[in-house]
Structures are given as structure tokens and as C-alpha cells.
Amino acid sequence: MMKDNQSNNMTHKITDNINLKLVSLAVAAALLSGCQSIWPDYLRPKVAVPAQYTEAADQTKDNATSQVSNTWWTLYQDQVLNDLVTKALVNNTDIKLAAARIEEADAVMREVGAALFPQVDLNAAATRTRVTEAGANPIFSGNPRNDYIGQLGTSFEIDFWGKFRRAKESARAQALSTRYAKDTVALSLAGLVASNYLVLRSLESQIVVTQDNLKSRDDSLALTKRRLDGGVASALDVHQAEVASANLSAQLAELTRMRAVTLHQLAVLTGTLDLNVATADIKALPIPPTPPAGLPSSLLEARPDVRQAEEDMIAANANIAVAKAALYPSISLTASFGGESLELGDILKSAARIWSGGLSLNLPIFDSGRLNSKVDQASAKQKQALASYEGAVQNAFREVNDALINLRQYTERESALNRSQEAAKKALDVSENRYKSGYSAYLDVLDAQRVYNDAALAFIQSRQSRLVATVDLFKSLGGGWKADALEQTKSGR
Fold it and tell me: The pTM is what?
């Protein structure tokens, strides 16, 4: 009997040694899994764009040290605009949607990352059964009887080919992509609010000019009627004056309608449906600084939409590795430890102890090309992401050049229209004085009034275009520029 016990003890020791070796091998395999790679790591592709913007104006070197923060809308020095942008960045539904997508992507990243760690489950059960006592093998140990079992179980797939690590890399890139997407939405939203605000101020200034010109034409109409009564003017002059006054009234009504529509758009953008803004003059807004000459086009890499496209490309590259890893064998470890007894009080005793451990390998042999098709799909998506990234960089380069040329030409146009407005005003004064003195016909006054009205409105619209061009430039540069940004872009990710 003693020999049997010694033999059993020796068997248990041998078994424990074998189990310990298996666990050691499994741990070693898990550690070595970090060294395996079946697909190259991501490398940023080179996109052929000129080193500098082609439409950059020549400026002094002193301007090269200027900097503009991402809160570029504050450069217009308008508190109403600042408040509108702040409200939009908090209340706008597109911002809320982008924030919710960030939360979703973060949750997906945590879920994917959890696959790198073992999952431990607790299984417990209690049953009461009765077996036959009249059968071929009757049970006499107690009938009916209880059975209690409780055990911890775990299963863990060794990431030998980097499948889970690359999946986490892809999920992390997608999470970053959603953040850059939110930054893109915020940048576009701030630009929309600023542009609509400038349009609103332009319309208000045009309304003021139209009201002044309408008052002037009404005065001319009254004067013409008095001259008709005095036999100095003809009925034709009166009718022409009435037409001119009615046309300006129609123009005023249209401008008022357009202001209301623009205000409604601002209300939706800011999430304040009862928005009301006091009137102001667009000419009171300062012209914000323009970027210095020599800014490198590599600054485009800091634009949120370009960074978003790059993160999508990183995710697509990692997904190829995930798809290729499915072609290789998967190695999994399973283990459980617990107790089973007839009495609940005995479940923790050594005699009730139960355990198991295992190692499994799964290798796909024949699947009619299904797994290879997934690799091809992932590769095609990576090519699509690469094309999207290249397109984002090229489009960003074009937008900056467009904004630069627009700003430069709108500035020149505004200067010319300002001279035109001043000359038209002088011509109007001369024509009115000549008409009152009887040296010219009323048709000359009407023509001068029309020319001045068009010139005044054109000047205001040119100021609007110039300011909106600065907004477009801020947006195209990603919200701002810094003199040391080149060094940051050289450092890469």
C-alpha cells in the first residue's frame, strides 16, 4: 500500500514538472511573438509637390517670424464674431456628431486591445440528481445526490504573427482619424461662421448705402416735382425719378431678405435658433495679417484633413497584416482550475481539486481562396487610402494657392473700386449742382446716381471678398502658421 502511495506521488511530481514546462514554453512563445512580422511597418509616402507655394507674394524677411494661432478668428477683433464661433464649436450638431464618433473609435480601440490579454471566466454550477438503483450498475453512494462545481477558466491566443498587435495599430489609427476629422469639422465650421458673419456685415453695409442713396433719390424726386410745378422740369423727369427711386426700394428689399437668410444660417451653425445680431459696418473690421513669404508646402502635413487621410492609410496598412496573419496557424492556450464535490463545504479541499490545461493549433488548409481574397481586399483598400492621401495633399496645395491669389487680387480690386467710388461721388455732386443750376438735364443726375450706387456697393462687396479670402487662407493653412512649424513637420510622426 505504501509503495502504491509513493508511486502515485512520483507520478504527480512528473506530471507537475511536465505542466510547468508546458507553461514555460507557452510563456516563451508569447514573448517571442513580439518579434514576428509578416508585413512591413508603415512608412509615410512621398507626395510630389513644390517646396513652396507658387502664389506666395514676395515679402520682407521680417515677416517670416510672424505667427498665427489656431484661434485665427480673433484677429478680426470682433467680439460678436468670437462669441459666434465659440457657440458653434460647442452647440453645432456636426461637432457633437464628430465627438460621438471619437467616443466610438476609442471604445473599439479598447475592445481590440483587450485581445492581447487572456480572458478569465468564472464558471459555477450546483445540481441535484437521482440515478437508478435497479439498473445494471446500481449506485449506492447516496441517492439522490448533490454536485457542486466552481472553476476559473481562461483561453488565450498567442499573437505569434502580430495579428492582434496590428489590429490594435489599425484601431488606434482609426481613433486618431476621428480626432482629426473633428478638427477638420471644427476648422470648416469656424470658417463657415466667419464667412457668413462677414457676408452679414457686408449686407448690412450695403443696406445702409442703399438707404442713403434712396433718401437722396427721394429728395431728387421731391425736387423734380417742385420744378415740374414751377414749370422748370418736365413730367418725363418726374417719371424717371420715380423709376430710379422704386428700383432702389426693390434693391433694399432684396438686401434685407438676404441679410435675414444669412442670419438664419448663422443661427443654425451656432445652435442658437433665436439668434439676433446688432448691425455693424464691415469697413470697421481690420484686415488680418497674411502669411510671410517662404512658408514651406510641407506645412500642409499639419492640416487636419491631411492628417486624417494619413491615419486612414496607416490603418489600411495594418489591416493587410491582420488579413495575412489569418493565413498562418493560430496557437491558443486553454486552462482551468477549480473544485468539484458532493458537499458544498468540501469544494475548496485538495481532494476536490480539478484542473486542466491545453495547447491547440489551427491551420487553414483549404478555403477556396477566401482568406487570400481578404488579403487582396485589404491591399486594395490600402491603395485607395494612399490615393486619398495623395489627393488630400494635392487639394490642400491648390487651396492655399487659390487663397493666396484671391487675397492678392481682391486687395488690388478693392483699391481700384475705392478710387472708383470716390470719383463717382464727385461726379454725382457735380451733376446735382449743374442740374439745380439748370446747366444739365436730369438724365445726367440719374446716370450719376446709378453709377455711384453701383460703385459704393461694389466697394463693399470687394471688402467682403477680401475678408472672406483671408478666412479661406486660414482654413487652407489648417488654421494658422508658425515660423518653427517646418522643424515640426520634418520630425514626422
Answer: 0.80
